[in-house]
């Protein structure tokens, strides 16, 4: 079905065409900055936020929270900050629930808190889900490939950067 970037690009172009209704080539759309129109891009950006489950990050990027700029720049931002609709399923659904609950319940990254959290999570979720999550963390630690975990973890505040994820992976039993 294509790479993540291709999927995001297709969806963003569809949203752009729905919102602006302008007959443009793909290359023209990609080089367009929606802020250059008389019409406010606010509704377009709101549709992007809702579609990709992303929140503009005004602390890190004051220019529309990372959503501003050309459509190409928007796609690049969504690659690292957004979630493709329908992609949180299977194991990623487990990871999504894990991060959501971890963010709400566990603020310290030490062995006691991480393992206590996994004990609590294991009671809330099936043992199979807990094992799948631990397996995904161990594989990421072993291969040093954190892309999947980071793409889901960035939806939440908290320690979900590579250092935090590495710490969690090192601490789970």
Helix/strand class: mainly alpha
Strand content: under 5%
N/C terminus separation: 36 Å
Helix content: 55-70%
Unreliable stretches = none
Give the total of beta strands: 0
In short:
It is built from nine helices and no strands.
How is this structure best described in words?
By secondary structure, this protein is mainly alpha-helical. It is built from nine helices and no strands. α5 packs across α8. It is elongated and about 55 Å long. The mean pLDDT is 81.
How is this fold's topology laid out?
Layout: H1 4-20, H2 26-30, H3 42-52, H4 71-81, H5 90-105, H6 111-124, H7 127-143, H8 147-153, H9 162-171
Provide key terms for this protein.
about 170 residues, 2 domains, about 60% helix, about 0% strand, mainly alpha
